[in-house]
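input
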Amino acid sequence: MTNGEASLALKEAAGRTLTSLVGYTLAYNGLDNAKAPKNGLYAELRQDVAGLGGDSKFVRTTGDIRYYHELFDNVVGIARLQGGHIQGFGGRDLRIVDNFNLGPSLVRGFAPGGIGPRDISTGMNAQGNPLGGTKYVGGSLEVQFPIWGLPRDLGL
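output
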């Protein structure tokens, strides 16, 4: 049961701020097919810097690597590794809203903001308010295959 109140950490983050950021992405695409890969490697490194203007000052770096390998006819194995780090600079602390709030993009089945630390100091909300984190890493192994008995043209 909840009393409708935000936690103290979220109340302290309330107010108006302006974030100005610039970023870049470095990507490598060695996939055999961009829409339905069966073999190859895709890697991406992203970095954003906030602080060219506005109130926020941080550097956020994320990476994502996916390796595809066809195990046998239309059955593809996928290995994925992803991670990120964010850090304030210039004497500025990170705001809660700048933190990583992860969910289904990292682990299937979790709600947005469903992974990470929570503020349960209010005691009224057993779930707590998500606070996000400054670092994350995740890995997964998957197998993709068509639904047998259906025409391959359906793409299921």
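quick obs: The longest strand covers residues 40-54.
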